[in-house]
Amino acid sequence: MKALIIVDIQNDFLPGGALAVPQGDEIIPFINKIQSQYDVVVATQDWHPRDHGSFAVNHEGKKPGDMIELDGLPQIMWPVHCVQHTHGAALASELEIKSIEKVFTKGEDPSIDSYSGLFDNGKRRSTGLGEYLKEKRVTRVDVVGLAADYCVKFTALDTIEFGFDTTVLKSGTRAVNLQPDDFEKSMKELNAAGVRVK
Ligand code: VGL
Ligand code: ZN
Which structural domain, as residue segments, surrounds residue 149? Predict the structure, then answer.
């Protein structure tokens, strides 16, 4: 069985959003088009409380892009984004959702960030996504969505570690690129871990 994991296609990651990924909107028609090729389609949703520790405003004197230590882990400071129940956190209206079986939320714990759709950044808690796909007898997964250099990358690194034959589809992802070469670096890291990039 083959699954598609659609990562964080939420208003805040699209142009005009709080943590906009350049050209993030361009990938939505591609993602809509390919969904019918999969046995299982699932999505992830970044879903933060307003007091989340990854938000710069919640740390005196910090601004987006700064680094801090959050509960023992290095943490980049982000603008406020994907706050639970806000328009910014909602899945983009252009995204076709009728084939999506289940949406896995992440990032609810204010003390830890969660880039991967499977585990938080400290691997302290599972979202249930990996177990769900195993239960459905999925062996191969394709990963698309936002952003290539954060949530897509860490989701694919976890699916490969979970034992799924994993491919990241370049036409279905875009990067934040805090550094201009972050996209290419992420794809190299994925390759090195055994993830196919095509
Ligand atoms: C993401 C930064 C912070 C992502 C989520 O979806 O890639 N990036 N939260
Ligand atoms: Zn986030």
Answer: 2-48+90-197
Label residue 59 by pLDDT band (50, 70, 90): very high
Supply the residue whose CA is at minimum distance from atom 2 of ligand 1. Answer: 150
Q: What is the mean pLDDT of the chain?
A: 98
For residue 171, what are its two tokens?
Answer: 């036409």
Residue range 54-58: mean pLDDT, rounded: 98
Distances (CA, A) of 137 to 1, 30, 33, 134, 142: 6, 26, 24, 5, 15
**Using a 6 Å cutoff on CB, does residue 38 contact ligand 1?**
no
- Could you tell me where the DSSP H helices lie in the chain? 28-34, 129-135, 151-161, 182-192
Q: What pLDDT is stored for residue 65 in this prediction?
A: 96
What does the alpha-carbon distance between residue 163 and residue 130 come to, in Å, rounded to a whole number?
9
Asked if residue 119 is part of any domain, the answer here is: yes
Query: How many beta carbons lie within 10 A of that of residue 23, not counting itself?
Result: 11
- Provide the domain count of the chain: 1
Atom of ligand 1 nearest to the CA of 54: 3
In one-letter notation, the amino acid at residue 151 is C
- CB of 138 closer than 8 Å to CB of 5: no
Report, as residue numbers or ranges, the catalytic residues.
8, 106, 151
